[in-house]
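Dear H.,

Thanks for agreeing to be a second pair of eyes. The structure we're designing against is below in token form, covering all 360 positions.
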């Protein structure tokens, strides 16, 4: 019997009890499965580890992307990055008492943006169980979705145990840098017709920093566009500032009120696509995209959708985007970066040495 602590790379908080079967006091690491050796449920079914671990995983994911400004260099971390997670404390007066007191709500995460009122409006438009209010089920839901939608072993070869050759490691590294360059994004919350301001500001800041870092005598280069605006068939983009312009949710197709925040995906451009906060979902699992991290395969992306794909089937969470490109092993839950794998009668895919739980 292998000692769990011997192979575990990240420390896990002491009481990662199982939230699904409730029989299991602590997550037990299996030698290669990602599920619990004690109860069989997944890592995300158990209480998550520390928030610092969450933030380091997110820092790693967003590092080297156009959203690197949402991360910061980890002090003494040898170039590792951590997430500059936006927390928010809202103070409300309690009006029912004679001497006014104040109640506060702490959000463990809110979208980056310019105004607190927009963030509060955004939160109010989410289903209650998805509001990441500190100490509530909504906060736990968010942290479990981070593990579920953005597993570390989909982005870090060092966290994988199923890679069996140098070739598979380099295939994975190419895949990760390709989705970081062309597919992954972080949604922006703004009023309809006002999307893109934050990304524009980030682009300008990046261009300014690049210019300052370069030799002074070089002429400042134009900021490199992070993506092209998808070609518009009808050139109606110019009318988007018109107050009469109506906006429609790309998820449910219903009209979006002008005074309520929506989510934009920069990869999709800011003219033709926007979503109700509650409609910004993975098309596969129908879960809200955690911390607005999306994978876009629609117009303008490297991999345009298959002909006939409906437009709402182009927003993915990380897990399900990766599965459109590589099979996932039903045993260890890692992607299989090889053309040789086993397909079971129920169509699940397996590393050869993981099928039927054959230990090795
Ligand atoms: Zn369990
Ligand atoms: Zn367990
Ligand atoms: Zn909608
Ligand atoms: Zn999904
Ligand atoms: Zn496997």
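And this is the sequence the design step returned. I haven't edited it by hand at all.
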């Amino acid at each position: 019997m292998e000692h769990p602590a011997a192979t575990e790379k990240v420390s896990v908080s002491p009481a990662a009890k199982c939230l699904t079967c409730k029989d299991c006091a602590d997550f037990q690491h299996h030698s290669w499965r990602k599920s619990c050796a004690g109860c069989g449920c997944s890592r995300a079914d158990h209480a998550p580890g520390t928030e610092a671990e969450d933030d380091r995983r997110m820092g790693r994911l967003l590092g080297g992307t156009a959203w690197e400004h949402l991360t910061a260099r980890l002090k003494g971390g040898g170039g590792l990055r951590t997430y500059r997670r936006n927390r928010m404390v809202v103070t409300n007066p309690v009006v029912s008492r004679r001497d006014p007191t104040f109640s506060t709500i702490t959000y463990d995460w809110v979208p980056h943006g310019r105004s607190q009122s927009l963030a509060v409006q955004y939160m109010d438009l989410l289903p209650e169980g998805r509001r990441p209010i500190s100490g509530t089920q909504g906060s736990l839901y968010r942290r479990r979705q981070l593990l579920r939608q953005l597993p570390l072993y989909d982005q870090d070869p060092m966290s994988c145990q199923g890679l069996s050759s140098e070739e598979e490691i380099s295939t994975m590294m190419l895949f990760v840098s390709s989705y970081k360059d062309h597919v992954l994004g972080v949604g922006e919350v703004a009023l309809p017709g006002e999307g893109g301001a934050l990304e524009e500001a980030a682009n300008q800041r990046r261009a300014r920093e690049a210019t300052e870092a370069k030799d002074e005598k070089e002429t400042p280069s134009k900021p490199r566009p992070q993506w092209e605006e998808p070609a518009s068939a009808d050139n109606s983009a110019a009318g988007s500032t018109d107050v009469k312009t109506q906006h429609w949710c790309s998820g449910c197709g219903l009209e979006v009120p002008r005074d309520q925040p929506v989510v934009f995906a920069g990869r999709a451009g800011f003219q033709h696509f926007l979503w109700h906060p509650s409609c910004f979902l993975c098309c596969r699992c129908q879960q809200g995209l955690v911390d607005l991290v999306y994978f876009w395969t629609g117009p303008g992306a490297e991999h345009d959708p298959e002909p006939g794909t409906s437009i709402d089937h182009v927003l993915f969470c990380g897990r399900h985007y990766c599965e459109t490109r590589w099979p996932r092993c039903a045993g260890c839950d890692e992607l299989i970066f090889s053309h040789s794998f086993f397909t079971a009668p129920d169509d699940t895919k397996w590393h050869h040495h993981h099928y039927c739980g054959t230990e090795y």
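Two observations from my side: The chain is about 20% helix and 10% strand. Residues 282, 284-285, 287, 316-317, 319-320 surround zinc ion (ligand 4) (CB under 6 Å).

Warmly,
E.
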